[in-house]
Amino acid sequence: MEFVQWLANNVFGTPAILLGLIVCLGLLIQRKEANQVVAGTFKAVIGFLIIGAGADVIVGSLNVFQPMWKEVFNLKEEALGSFTGFDAFNGEYGGAVTLALTLGFVLNVLLARFTRLKYIYLTGHMMFWTTMIFAGIIIDAAGDVSYWQLVLFLTVVMGIYWTVQPALTQPFMRKITGGDQIALGHTAASSALVGALLGKWLGNRNNDSEKLKLPKGLEFLRDSNVITALTMGLLFLIGAIVIVLKNTPGAEALVAQAGDQNFIVYSIIQSFKFAGGIAIVLFGVRLFIGEIVPAFHGIATKIVPGARPALDCPVVFPYAPNAVILGFLGAFVGALIWLVVIGNTVAYIFVPTMIVLFFHAATAGVFGNATGGVRGALLGGFMTSTIVAWGQFVMVKYLLPSTIPDTAMWAADSDMFVLGPVIRLLASIFY
Amino acid sequence: MNILCVCGLGQGTSLILRIHVEAVLKEMGVKAEVDHMDVSSAGGAAADLILTSRELADSLRADGKVKANIAVVNNYFDRQEIRAALESALKRSTAEEG
User: Fold this and answer.
1) Of A36, A91, A419, B50, which one has the greatest count of Cβ atoms within 10 A?
2) Cα separation of A198 and A383, whole Å?
């Protein structure tokens, strides 16, 4: 019994070790050489631990961003109460999340094998974030759920979601790709579907986005580091200028934080820190997902031959490169509008994370274009920013305020916002 | 030989490409280290060959600093296209060395 307890604490309760074991097993199943097994396992564990470090950097920057924009909008209310935060939450529940991710994938493979929904979800980084955010919602709703209850609940929810989501987007994927070989496996699905339906309703299919001649030089928008730093830099700069011009005690307190440094310079540095934090997180996720997904892929192709891989959203970008840019522009305008509207109506400072906005809006743009041309692509992008902005407000304030609101601000996205209330409802019924 | 598979974020798409590139290399009997990466990091990474989409290939080339050969793959899960891209890139690099 003591051994079981030891195992529970040190293996299943220590996410980095559990992840290392899962990756090691995956590499062994793929019959990799000994040096590859060791290197892959170590990279996965290191990557997992890096994520926490990146999350700290992001939150450090948000701790300047939020109070600054609060002061700009004259909001008095405290943003967040006390909450667990990513590091502590991951330390406590990260093991359950990792295990549920693995078992949820197994359920996805079984469902693909035995039902007509033949889709295998292979977008590993989104699998990780979706499971993590849903765990945050469940723990917030139900309090301290036991390890295995959490694993079981998440396994079932994730396994079903990863099987059904690609099926829902497939009718439009056929239209976009002109074939039936690949599916979309990404949390942008709800934004993409809204884009496609609005495009059908309000757009004009004949005015295809690919007939447009967009100016060259917009290619840098595809570089996630650049767009993140650029847009956050712009928002930090505007906020800082307003603060410097204000003479309120709140504004003066903020300026004092910068010490001898000029407050505008200090703020701009914060925007680069935010982008840097995102880059660190992505680096960590890349290291460990890069070891898991090939194993998943190898196993799935053996068990379910002929299943469609459900892939990361950029698979649709080459089919309509202009719609990608139009979708992003629609979302960018929308994000700025919602930042001001949400700030002034419900007193929440929306964090417009460009990675979420770019990839989701670009996907919605391609889907919108497929049914409604240029107008469909722009509407798809705008609706993405609407879902993300209001979704982030609802999630941070009501779905997981006590667990990981700090993570939801930059890592939660469309499908998580749409499904979040359902997860919370289910969690409060079961526990 | 070092091969880099590159997409915008270096998370999902480039990894899928990596899986297929590794499989194709195995078929061809070529030994190579394959990694996946985002376009920012790839600009400064040491590699012999970069495989990526047309748009990202353009921006890597425009960068001017990238020494690696850049080959375009339009369809990241089309093994025939990947094979063709790899074969012509390998031919080019042996020609340069010779």
Assistant:
1) B50
2) 9
A-chain residues near B10 (CB < 8 A): 282, 286
Chain-centroid distance, C-alpha A154: 17
Distance CA A15, CA A94 (A): 5
Question: Distance between CA atoms of A220 and A310, rounded to whole angstroms?
Answer: 27
- Say how far apart CA A100 and CA A106 lie, in whole Å: 10
Residue written as tokens 């400064």?
B44
Residues of B in contact with A290 (CB under 8 A): 15, 18, 35-36
CA-CA distance, B18 to B3, in Å (whole number)? Answer: 9
Collapsing DSSP to helix, strand or coil, B71 comes out as: strand
Contact A290 B15 (CB under 8 A): yes
* Structure token pair of residue A45: 């564990």
Whole-angstrom distance, CA of residue A245 vs CA of residue B11: 41
Q: Which residues of chain B are at the A interface, by a Cβ-Cβ cutoff of 8 Å?
A: 7-13, 15-16, 18-19, 22, 35-41, 53-56, 58-59, 62, 74-77
| Distances, alpha carbon A35 to alpha carbons A28, A32, A39, A40, in Å | 11, 8, 6, 8
* Integer CA distances (angstroms), A307 to A109, A115, A300, A354, in order: 9, 11, 8, 32
Residue range B2-97 in CATH 3.40.50.2300: yes
Angle at A180 (CA atoms; ends A174, A186), nearest 5 degrees = 70
For chain A, 431 residues long, give each residue's pLDDT as a single digit of tens.
Answer: 688 788 877 888 888 898 899 899 989 988 888 998 999 999 999 999 998 899 889 989 988 998 899 899 888 766 566 899 998 999 999 999 999 999 999 999 999 999 999 999 999 999 999 999 999 999 999 988 999 999 999 999 999 999 999 999 999 999 998 888 889 999 999 999 999 999 999 999 889 988 887 777 666 676 778 888 888 899 999 999 999 998 888 889 889 988 899 999 999 999 999 999 989 998 998 888 888 888 888 888 889 988 889 999 988 988 888 899 899 999 999 999 999 999 999 989 999 888 889 899 999 999 999 999 999 999 999 999 999 999 999 999 999 999 999 999 999 999 999 999 999 999 999 88
Domain residue ranges of chain B, discontinuous segments joined by +: 2-97
